[in-house]
Amino acid sequence: MENKLLLEVVTPYGLVLSEEVDEVVCAGSEGEFGVLPGHVPFFTTLKIGMLTYKKGNATRYVFVNWGYAEVEPDKVRILADSAEKSEDIDVERAKAAMKRAEERLKQAADVDFTRATSSVERSVTRIQVAERR
Ligand code: ATP
Predict the structure, then answer these.
(1) How far is ligand 1, taken at its centre, from the CA of residue 35, in Å?
(2) Whose CA is nearest to atom 21 of ligand 1?
(3) Is residue 117 within 6 Å of ligand 1 at its C-beta?
(4) Atom 18 (ligand 1): residue with closest C-alpha?
(5) Terminal alpha carbon distance of the chain
(6) For the chain, domain boundaries
(7) How confident is the model over 83-107, as pLDDT tens digits?
(8) Residue 64 in contact with ligand 1 by CB distance below 6 A
(9) Which of the listed CATH numbers 1.10.3470, 1.20.5, 3.40.1710, 1.10.10 matches domain 89-130?
(10) Taking burial as the number of CB atoms within 10 A of a residue's CB, which of 2, 36, 85, 115 is the most buried?
(11) SS3 30
(12) In angstroms, what is the span from residue 103 Cα to ligand 1's centroid?
């Protein structure tokens, strides 16, 4: 696997993907970072965002909901709360989740603001990632 990276995305719901790729770009909590084969090992946290990877001429997109990235010279391992490949995103479900969260935010008083805004952020990002398929 010289000059390749094994990209693994794992969530509590199961293995989302395990592929040999050429390049990975992640939404780190401190900003976006790219990984090429041979990268120095590091460990970092991720935010709600889009992971992009290149395989030959193809670029693919994955929704990632928080978590960690473990980088080794020949491997990128993502441990996320949830994640979906762009083609597996159910856009109607994301729109419904966004509507529910927005309704909750309108009710003001008792609402868990952080939870509702995270839900909106997940929905918006899922819709953006689905558009890139
Ligand atoms: P919902 O309110 O629709 O469940 P959520 O953001 O609360 O959305 P998560 O807790 O992030 O959902 O994920 C729960 C499970 O459902 C995970 O397996 C995740 O991959 C899957 N999932 C959630 N939303 C979608 C979607 N729009 N399309 C495909 N799978 C989804």
Answers:
(1) 27
(2) 82
(3) no
(4) 13
(5) 27
(6) 5-87, 89-130
(7) 999 999 999 999 999 999 988 888 8
(8) no
(9) 1.20.5
(10) 85
(11) coil
(12) 18
